[in-house]
Amino acid sequence: MSKRLNRLAKESSPYLLQHADNPVDWYPWSEEALKRAKEEDKPIFLSIGYSACHWCHVMEHESFENEEIAEIMNKHFINIKVDREERPDIDEIYQRVCQLATGTGGWPLSVFLTPDLKPFYVGTYFPPEDRYSMPGFKTLLQQLAEAWRYNRDAIEKQAEQIVKGLKQLDEFAIKGTDSIDKSILDEAAVNLLQSADTINGGFGPAPKFPNSMLLSFMLRYYRFSNISKFKEFVFLTLDKMSEGGIYDQIGGGFHRYSTDSKWLVPHFEKMLYDNALLPIVYAEAYQLSKDQRYAKIVRETLDYVIREMRSDEGGFYSTQDADSEGVEGKYYTFTKDEIYKLLDKRDAEIICKYYGITEEGNFEGRNILHISTSIDKIAKELGLSIDEVRDRIENSKKILLDAREKRVKPARDEKIITSWNSLMISAFIKGYRITFDDRYYNIAKDAIEFIANKLSKDYELMHVYKDGKAKIHGYLDDYAFYISALLDMFEIDSKAEYLDHAINYANYMLEHFSNDDLYYTSDKHEEIITRPKSIYDLSIPSGTSIAMQALLRLYHYTQEDAYLKKAISIMKRYATLAAENPFAFGALLNGIYLYVKKPIEIVLITKDGNAKRWLLNRYIPEGIIAVTDEIEDLRKFAFFKDKAVNDKLTAYVCKEFRCSLPLHSIKEMEEYISSL
After folding, report:
1. Span between the terminal Cα atoms of the chain, in Å
2. What is the pLDDT of residues 527-541, one digit of tens each?
3. Is the Cβ–Cβ distance between 652 and 643 less than 8 Å?
4. CA 474, 485, 632 angle in degrees (round to 5)?
5. Where are the alpha helices (DSSP H) in 334-471?
6. For residue range 183-237, what is the model confidence (pLDDT) as tens digits?
7. Is 440 left (phi over 0), alpha (psi -120 to 50) or beta?
8. Checking DSSP bridges between strand 460-466 and strand 600-605, what pairing results, if any?
């Protein structure tokens, strides 16, 4: 007999749809739910998660599929389910409440609210029954329902205190600075290095996250200071990650994080944003080192995204689950016996040596593939050439990938999120810059057009697209990341339309998100109990940090003072925080680097592909670049005024209002840029 579906069956979010057959009388976040809570004077149970969240699935199975628990929920509460990836504003507010009340946060987030949305009890995962020192969810529901009925004044007082504490956090006087100089970067870099794991790479003990923005900052700091240990630490970290189980050795792409300090055992979910941010730092490492291993990781990761995460319409999906067939990691792991059945004996021997595959395995009787020895050692041990071993490994990887494709795949969340798609566009552009693979350029171009056509109208962005429909007003990071992607595209293909669009979206952002810096929500969003800001660079960069960088870049193209003024105000407000706590401000520090180092402005006018390749392949993180073969349509922008051209390659390089004479060769460009 089929189960009765609840209201979530009409939603498009895969996470909400996963709960559509629960016996819980779920609502999506909606006027209907909030109105009913007020009319019936019932408390709200708000449950926030996302489709690839392992413990969200556990709590659903244990509690939300439990008829007895569902009956209590339906009788005493209005139950609202939220996908954090659709409504990051709601998640941001109540995660801060959880951190304020408990000292921690995470998902699933479980919040009990008054009908006017004030929180009075908050936690994350709860088991169904009392366990160790943790209250069972059934017990908690009964206690809170009783308290709501018989001790309402205490609950109302608790809610008021929590909201007061939240607003005090919002009003907390951040110690700003009037001086934005290299000392900010010096302090941040030293603080980062003190927490660096110089054996295994990364920061701190397990669990370890990739922290791509911090790695990008350390490369920039190396360029500024010429202190090689910063560069060497980044290279060590990139090497260890790409050799470990956090990297999908067979299919490419990165898992969410490592549960151990050696990057061996990942949490197996794959997030679009990780596979956008990490290729960027690997590409920068390649630009700096010209080490082909880094370019290979960029290619393999972008090719994974094309294969697994790209929609037919040109956008990118959000996540892949950690589990398949109810088992975490089953899709990605192999037994030794499986390897020998799929490959001939010599190839199987090589693969087992290279990827550390054993009979007993390293993960629940199976093997997480990781690079455990060098190709050189295998070649020497087996009496083969290095090229033959390398070729055998690459051919075997294709066979293993084909075999893996026949397995039941992890579920995929097919929401298309504007901000994450914009990060992915920037990654494909960076991939194009180091490979000149036209596929990457065309995919980036198609995704820009997808957002323009499906998620934007009159420069107002929507946040999410699914099943042919765009919904939810865009957040700050949707605007900031898309503006940044447009500027990245303009650097490699300097058509006026890309810069025009970036300017128009920036103007909309400043009009609808501005205060002393920038709000996370626009003036078109509903205000819940506070209007949130996004300042911390965590798993993804904050909208504030990327907006600041984008405004700095736009100022140099346009000389529009409003862009510079807003960027400087953001830097002054948060620079001291970033220096003292760099782990939460990697992207902001990259923007401060751009400002302090002083951008190098480069205009290259040529049809010479070699000159274009030379310029775009260089590591110039403070570069503000334009590459075009036709400048007339660009003269309306300050960046291009008074730039004379002739039939020869012509380049202009400027810094701090001083420009070179016209340069007419790669050699002349290299000499002038190196002198700055």
Report:
1. 74
2. 899 999 989 999 999
3. yes
4. 120
5. 336-342, 345-354, 375-382, 386-405, 418-435, 438-454
6. 999 999 999 999 999 999 999 999 999 999 999 999 999 999 999 999 999 999 9
7. alpha
8. unpaired
Q: Could you give the domains of the chain?
A: 7-170 (3.40.30.10), 182-325+413-597 (1.50.10.10), 332-406 (1.10.10), 600-675 (no CATH)
Task: Return d(Cα 481, Cα 418) in angstroms, integer.
Answer: 8
Helix, strand, coil percentages in the chain from 3-state DSSP, rounded to 5: 50, 15, 35
User: Could you please report the per-residue DSSP string of 232-276?
Assistant: HHHHHHHHHHHHSTTB-TTT--B-SEESSTTS-SEE--EETTHHH
Cα gap 262→287, rounded to integer Å = 26
Given pLDDT bands bounded at 50, 70 and 90, which one contains residue 171?
A: low
Helices (H) then strands (E): counts for the chain: 25, 20
Q: Judge whether 411 and 51 are in contact, CB under 8 Å.
A: yes
**Cα-based distances in Å from 15 to 263, 292, 638:** 28, 39, 47
Q: Which two tokens stand for residue 524?
A: 């078109």
Q: CB neighbours of 6 closer than 8 A, spacing ≥ 6?
A: 19, 20, 21, 22, 24, 25, 26
CB atoms within 10 A of CB 66: 19
Label residue 78 exposed, middle or buried (CB < 10 Å: 0-12, 13-18, 19+).
buried
pLDDT tens-digit readout, 243-263: 999 999 999 999 999 999 999
CA distance readout (Å), 206 to 219, 253, 262, 264, 548 = 23, 21, 8, 11, 32
Report how far residue 57's alpha carbon sits from residue 60's, in angstroms, rounded to the nearest whole number.
5
Q: C-alpha angle 325/330/336, rounded to 5°?
A: 140
